[in-house]
Design goal:
Elements: E1 2-8, E2 16-22, E3 29-30, E4 58-61, E5 66-69, E6 72-73, H1 74-80, H2 83-92, H3 98-109, H4 119-123, H5 131-145, H6 155-181, H7 194-203, H8 214-226, H9 234-243, H10 249-260, H11 268-279, H12 285-293, H13 314-330, H14 335-348, H15 351-355, H16 363-373, H17 380-400
Antiparallel strand pairs: 1-2, 2-3, 4-5, 5-6
Helix pairs in contact: 2-17, 5-6, 5-10, 6-7, 6-17, 7-8, 8-13, 8-16, 8-17, 9-10, 9-17, 10-17, 11-16, 13-16
The protein binds carboxymethyl coenzyme *A.
């Protein structure tokens, strides 16, 4: 990083010299750290112009719609790699050699089962509980089972925890589904690939051998890759913030799952399908576009817009292509895809969406693929959480492996000034 200077001038104060860092890619960053000693804070609600950390994992150029993991484009990774290879890349910084990959995959497979007692946690939930509610609880509970790997200062513990989380998330996610539909939990099968095994645990039963379509397993794997990481988004920042207090990684990931659940973040894929159901027919699109533009109406076009992308989300382009492939392969004629394509076409030519640079994001198409695979809407965000676990753990590990401070933002206080307490009988 090369260093430049910025001078901050504030009325009645001495000029403050601030360092300006030039990253390997992207915009310069002003280091406002020295303001602490000057009794000044920066004010940036929603962190729209704040870099919360230094990171080497993922780079996004929102203006041109570029996403790189450790320097490799998401398009190349989605077409030429597989999810576990991307996990290795995110965690270790480089693509694995053939031997490294074999060892990584076999280690993950050795950790796919969950503690047998964990299944009793599920029974404490109502069958109609939202699977994300179950995920928050069950993943948080992992720290009660695997406390032999929660010494965050021990790199070996951190590595085992990463492996355990990546390996067990599909098992935990599929158990959420099986519990909801009242079917027996399926044990993982280590002769299958990561995505095949997930589909086996989702749709297999003890009564017959699961038949896993290679096309669906490939589509699933691509969905996992496309959601694997996305730099300092709300859930990843939550994981970092929770981790900065020294909390154990399972608790941090549970915090990330909670942050992901909201419809502005990971919950959007579920919201897109609900929205397409609500719109119902191509003839209603104009009405819903008008609602999305109306400031008095809380309705938003779900799957549109992004804090960082002011261009087409590159993940959405890959997902759009994948969506067509899957539906063609399955011979499914999904009217929702037709509706989605028309909605996209109309929104992209509308001056409101053009001016505000609102383009389809990753979630716009993922729901259509997941529905075609037979995954219920309520499981969509769970699949996002499963895929994003590697990103969360890579960022958590990056933070813990380097010098860091507890995350503790300050505020612009606009409440009451100091006043005397008034006893209840005098108020
Ligand atoms: N429909 C209609 N108007 C929108 C939409 C939308 N989907 N998204 C943003 N706008 C408008 C917004 O009203 C605002 O208008 P104005 O400037 O007149 O006040 C302007 O565009 C800027 O939006 P913002 O809400 O200030 O932008 P943000 O960066 O705070 O929010 C967002 C980004 C993703 C939360 C938002 O675009 C949104 O809620 N989209 C729908 C939900 C969604 O698809 N989320 C998935 C994000 S991608 C997956 C992930 O990474 O989690």
């Amino acid at each position: 990083m090369t260093e430049k200077k910025a001078i901050l001038k504030v009325d009645g104060r001495e000029d403050i010299a601030l360092s300006v860092y030039s990253p390997s890619l992207g915009q310069d960053v002003v280091d406002v750290g020295p303001l602490t000693g000057s009794q000044l804070f920066t004010f940036d609600p929603g962190f729209t112009s704040t870099a919360s950390c230094e990171s080497k994992i993922t780079y996004i150029d929102g203006e041109v719609g570029k996403l790189l993991h450790r320097g490799y484009s998401i398009e190349e990774l989605a077409s030429q790699s597989d999810y576990l290879e991307v996990c290795f890349l995110l965690l270790h910084g480089e693509l694995p050699s053939a031997e490294e990959k074999e060892l990584f995959v076999s280690t993950i497979k050795n950790h796919t089962m969950v503690h047998e007692q964990l299944q009793f946690f599920y029974r404490g939930f109502r069958r109609d509980a939202h699977p994300m509610a179950v995920m928050c609880g069950v993943v948080g509970a992992l720290s009660a089972f695997y406390h032999d790997s929660t010494d965050i200062k021990n790199p070996k513990h951190r590595e085992i925890t990463a492996m355990r989380l990546i390996a067990k998330m599909p098992t935990i996610a599929a158990m959420c589904y099986k519990y909801a539909v009242g079917q027996p939990f399926m044990y993982p099968r280590n002769d299958l690939s990561y995505s095949e095994n997930f589909l086996h645990m989702m749709f297999g039963t003890p009564c017959e051998e699961s038949k896993i379509s290679p096309t669906l397993a490939k589509a699933m794997d691509r969905i996992f890759i496309l959601h694997a990481d996305h730099e300092q988004n709300a859930s990843t920042s939550t994981v970092r913030l929770a981790g900065s207090s020294g909390a154990n990684p399972f608790a941090c990931i549970a915090a990330g799952i909670s942050a992901l659940w909201g419809p502005a973040h990971g919950g959007a894929n579920e919201a897109v399908l609900n929205m397409l159901d609500e719109i119902g027919d191509v003839s209603n699109i104009e009405k819903y576009i008008a609602k999305a533009k109306d400031k008095q109406d809380p309705f938003k076009l779900m799957g549109f817009g992004h804090r960082v992308y002011k261009n087409y989300d590159p993940r959405a382009s890959v997902m759009r292509e994948s969506c067509h492939e899957v539906l063609k392969e399955l011979g499914v004629n999904d009217p929702k895809l037709e509706l989605a394509l028309k909605l996209e076409e109309i929104a992209l030519s509308d001056p409101y969406f053009k001016e505000k640079k609102l383009f389809p994001n990753v979630d716009f198409y993922s729901g259509i693929i997941l529905s075609a695979i037979g995954i219920p809407t309520s499981m969509f965000t769970v699949i996002f959480a499963l895929s994003r676990t590697v990103g969360w753990i890579a960022h958590w590990n990056e933070m813990i492996s380097n010098p860091y401070k507890i995350g503790r933002p300050r505020q612009l206080y606009t409440g009451a000034t100091e006043r005397s307490f008034i006893p209840a009988d005098k108020r």
